[in-house]
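USER: My hope is that you can spare some time for a protein that puzzles me. I am handing you a single protein, as its sequence and its fold in token form. Walk me, if you will, through where the backbone shape changes along the chain. The protein I mean follows directly.
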Amino acid sequence: MTNTSSVIYLSMATPPIRCGAFIREVRQRHGLDQADLARRVGTAQPAISRLERDAVSPSLATLNRILEAMGETLSIQSVGLNAPAPGGSNQTIAELREDAQGVTPAQRLAQAAQLSEVSTQLAVETEG
């Protein structure tokens, strides 16, 4: 099984992190169902379901125990607000936060639609 990292970047401009989708993505990447993961962690399947639905929020220790049951580990890194954003951005985190705070939900949807169009065009050009 290929081990591809899952990364979540946090900032004050983003909503609070929800671990459910993260846990589900890692579990599915490893080809496990909820019952398989529950057995590995030593808990019941409904507990995994509650985590994946964000009905409960795990502690960092619990999240790491779940990841270790799948052969991975939790890695946390602090990045200064004046440092370039992770992933190769040419803007600092502070600049990205400032930009995000002034954008309305309608503007975010418009930006997402525009990004989708550009991505589709690039994919078509690459295939052709």
Observations:
- The mean pLDDT is 83.
- The two ends are 31 Å apart (CA to CA).
- The chain has one domain: 19-127.
- The CA atoms of residues 83 and 92 lie 5 Å apart.
